[in-house]
Specification:
With 355 residues, the protein is α/β, with parallel strands linked by helices. It has a single domain, classed as 3-Layer(aba) Sandwich (Rossmann fold), CATH 3.40.50.720. Helices cover 43% and strands 17% of the residues. A seven-stranded parallel sheet has the order 3-2-1-4-5-6-11, with helices on both faces. A two-stranded parallel ribbon has the order 7-10. Helix 3 packs parallel to helix 5 and helix 5 runs parallel beside helix 6. The longest helix has 21 residues. The protein is globular. The structure holds nicotinamide-adenine-dinucleotide (NAD) and 2'deoxy-thymidine-5'-diphospho-alpha-D-glucose (DAU). Nicotinamide-adenine-dinucleotide (NAD) binds next to helix 2, helix 5 and strand 5.
């Protein structure tokens, strides 16, 4: 290994570091761990934005590699070049509605891309037996809850969408590499994140953008589907803890204990925007539209394992987090406007025009 690399205590590939959660994670880890080299491996899909990483792009312990995780030889070059000893794997096709329009990219990235990373990690175990592999996943693998109950680490997998099925396949592959090859894995299954840098295909930034423009606010079905929201910084703090202290082979659920019906959430965003911007009641823009096929009714996480074992708990209340999020998008209108490309408008038309 060359001297420049030897100066780093750890050399970690973070996949998907230019996306929403990946950017927030790198903005936390790069300044916090100057002795780690953090290599952001991202192929820059529509959901990526390297400008998120401007505050850290010149840090000596950060580097960006424009690589697709489906390209095994490109990935191998990265593993070799940086003598990597850990992976934090976030890269994914992440949007449920897009997986319904066209599942192929989800199968490629979320299953085959994960498989490529696991194979390279397995090969690196020859040099580094304790090679750490942290797989970032979702509560959607569990399917839908009824009116009561919570997802625990023991809840059986019942994915509903091509997105969640592809994530479930990735989770199972990761589990199998621990059991079969002894790879030092951890998997985290988190609920819905919100906060800065989220692409406006997801509910919260989409509603903020539409409400700002005076466009209809599309709420699927009867609006009573429930999601359990977690501020992205709290998720990133949990990832930091699990990466360092999580038990090999285990999975950890992460959630904010903030269950809310979609329509109630949309009304709250409207009220926050009314307070900031004035100009009438934005909730009058709400339109109930045709439901998402296979739409899971309710998600709710039991996060007691990570709380008990690793001492994690969320620091942001939903009220404060939502207020900060609305403020962030309104204060960063250029960021939001840059997402609204021709491609976005085409997607929006395809997704919403016949609902
Ligand atoms: P995102 O869509 O905002 O970002 C995904 C990133 O992965 C982008 O930068 C994209 O360019 C990159 N990427 C996609 N395909 C790639 C490929 N083939 N090769 C290399 N890079 C590729 O996603 P997100 O919301 O930040 O989610 C990150 C991870 O967290 C995903 O694995 C997702 O399943 C999981 N997750 C997300 C949430 C949520 O609420 N957003 C909740 C739980 C778990
Ligand atoms: O639960 C974790 C998951 O959360 C992650 O694994 C996914 O990557 C992430 O995209 C998110 O999935 P959801 O499908 O829950 O998020 P989304 O923002 O697309 O939708 C949230 C809820 O709002 C869901 O019940 C569908 C509804 N919805 C969404 C959109 C985009 C609407 O009613 N109208 C909309 O326009």
């Amino acid at each position: 290994m060359n001297k420049d690399l030897e100066q780093f205590e750890r050399r970690i590939i973070v996949t998907g570091g230019a996306g929403f959660i990946g950017s927030n994670l790198l903005l936390l880890l790069v300044p916090k761990y100057p002795d780690y080299l953090l290599v952001n491996v991202d192929c820059l899909t529509y959901a990526a934005n390297l400008s998120n990483l401007r505050p850290i792009e010149n840090h000596p312990n950060y580097v960006f590699e424009h690589v697709n995780i489906c390209d095994r030889s490109g990935l191998k070059e990265c593993f070799d070049k940086y003598a990597v000893d850990a992976v934090i794997h976030l890269a994914a096709e992440s949007h449920v509605d897009r997986s319904i329009l066209g599942p192929a990219d989800f199968i490629d990235t979320n299953i085959m891309g994960t498989f490529n990373l696991l194979e390279l990690a397995r090969a690196r175990m020859e040099q580094k037996a304790s090679f750490r592999f942290h797989h970032i996943s979702t509560d959607e693998v569990f399917g839908s809850l009824g009116e009561t109950g919570y997802f625990t680490e023991e809840t059986p997998y019942r994915p509903s969408s091509p997105y969640s099925a592809s994530k479930a396949a990735g989770d199972h592959l990761v589990g199998s590499y621990h059991k079969t090859y002894g790879l030092n894995t951890v998997t985290t299954n988190c609920s819905n994140n919100y906060g800065p840098y989220q692409f406006p295909e997801k509910l919260i930034p989409l509603i903020i953008r539409n409400a700002r423009e005076g466009l209809p606010l599309p709420v699927y079905g009867d609006g009573k589907n429930i999601r359990d929201w977690l501020y992205v910084e709290d998720h990133c703090r949990a990832l930091d803890l699990v990466f360092h202290e999580g038990t090999a082979g285990k999975t950890y659920n992460i959630g904010g204990s903030n269950e809310i019906e979609n329509v109630v959430l949309v009304r709250r965003i409207c009220r926050l925007m009314d307070e900031r911007l004035g100009g009438g009641k934005r909730e009058e823009l709400i339109e109930f539209v045709k439901d998402r096929p296979g739409h899971d009714r309710r998600y709710a996480i039991d996060a007691s394992l990570i709380q008990r074992e690793l001492g994690w708990k969320p620091q942001h209340s939903f009220d404060a987090g939502l207020k900060a999020t609305v403020a962030w998008y309104l204060d960063n209108e250029d960021w939001l406007d840059n997402c609204i490309s021709g491609k976005y408008l085409k997607y929006y038309e395809e997704m919403y025009s016949n609902r």
